[in-house]
Amino acid sequence: MPPLQNDVLIRALLKKPVPRTPLWIMRQAGRYLPEYRATRKQAGGFLTLCKTPELACEVTLQPVERFDLDAAILFSDILTIPDAMGLGLSFSEGEGPRFSRPVSSMKDVERIARTRPMDGLGYVCDAVRMIRHELNGRVPLIGFTGSPWTLATYMVEGETSREFRKIKSLLYTQPDILERLLEILSQAAADYLSAQIHAGAQAVMVFDTWGGVLSRDAYLKYSLGPMQHIVSELLRLETPHTVPIILFTKGVGHELADLAASGCHAVGLDWTMELDQARAQVGSRVALQGNLDPAVLYAPDAVIRREVQKVLEKYGQGSGHVFNLGHGIQQYVQPEKVTVLVDAVREFSPAYH
Fold first, then answer.
1. How far apart are CA 268 and CA 248, in angstroms?
2. How far apart are CA 106 and CA 89, in angstroms?
3. Is the pLDDT of residue 263 over 70?
4. Is 154 assigned a catalytic role?
5. FRET pair for 263, CA 20 to 30 Å: which of 117, 245, 284, 336?
């Protein structure tokens, strides 16, 4: 593989000096892009798009071709692991994911324990290798997984939930079932990210979408604990270069110090956190990623530029900041607004380095 021509993201994640603040966008390959919608229509379905390496490679590269971004992120879905465990994943337009065989008992969990999910995830590693080849060193490639808690919520609820009735009932009435499920998922996620790294991912991220629905004690045990296992497993890997690990939990800014103590290299922040306060809490322990409100991209260009400046000012001088949205880009954003965002970060951020 050729050396990285643009390594500013990797250096910032490792808190090394950089000439400007690097930028990428969560869900940057998605429905807001007309070229993505065309490729998805060609695929005939979301899962086909995810499971066809050539198409996954194509949509991963689309935002990198259109915008001056500092990273590509693997196009996939957080639910690939439970899908490979045989839970019958499907997607209906406008309804989100659904499992035909959700988890509700220890018998279900032990059946999952006998599966070999990595045997069914070769298409992801094929896509990673293909993307690395096509990037040809332009920018680094980020791999990812859903957090064990987030995966478990979908597996137990069977679909997206607002109240999390089933999994929270499990947590408080039969915690042994949940603990065993999370144990299995923690190792599966660690193996999954390890495979992505060996296939060519140069940084990895754990998306903990639903950690914020837990109380503090429950979060530390059922969400952060499994993520710490993933981090410890990945830190043991022998790789030619350090592969930065980013943890992102939506809605738990109050647990920032615990996240920073997990052993990860960077913590992603949603838009409800103040970057200056976050930096004061973590000091030099980790880099910070974020955290522009995604809805800012519906605003006039001058407002976007102003809000970009605010984020940069909040973090302040020095390395250790990766500019990103506080959550995934929304499907109704006009691509031209992303250009405004990227140009503003490029224009304003060198003054902070």
1. 4
2. 20
3. yes
4. yes
5. 117
217 is catalytic: no
Quick: pLDDT tens for 40-57: 999 998 999 999 999 999
Q: Is 116 a catalytic residue?
A: no
- pTM of the entire structure? 0.97
- Considering the candidates 7, 20, 32, 154, report the single residue annotated as catalytic: 154
306 catalytic residue (yes or no): no
Catalytic site residue 31? yes
Q: Which of 77, 83, 191, 270 is catalytic?
A: 77
pLDDT digits (tens, 9 = 90+) for 85-96: 999 999 876 668
What are the tokens at 130? Answer: 């293909």
Q: Distance between CA 174 and CA 180 in Å, rounded?
A: 11
Q: Does 31 score more than 90 pLDDT?
A: yes
**pLDDT, mean of residues 108-113:** 96
Cα separations in angstroms, 184 against 139, 153, 190, 222: 33, 14, 10, 13
Cα atoms in the 13 Å half-sphere on the side-chain side of 338: 27
CA proximity to 244, closest of 226, 220, 278, 267: 267
Catalytic residue among 11, 20, 40, 279: 40
What single-letter amino acid sits at 294? P
Instruction: Output the pLDDT for position 63.
Output: 98
Largest CA distance in the chain: 58
Strand ranges for 200-279 from DSSP E: 203-208, 245-249, 266-268
**CA atoms 132, 137, 138, 141: torsion sign:** positive
* Residue with token string 């032990």: 110
Q: How is the beta sheet containing 203-208 ordered, strand by strand?
A: 72-73, 141-146, 203-208, 245-249, 266-268, 287-292, 321-325
Instruction: Classify residue 260 as exposed, middle or buried by CB count within 10 Å of its CB (0-12, 13-18, 19+).
Output: buried
pLDDT band at 253; cut points 50, 70, 90:
confident
Closest alpha carbon to 127 in 184, 216, 36, 195: 195
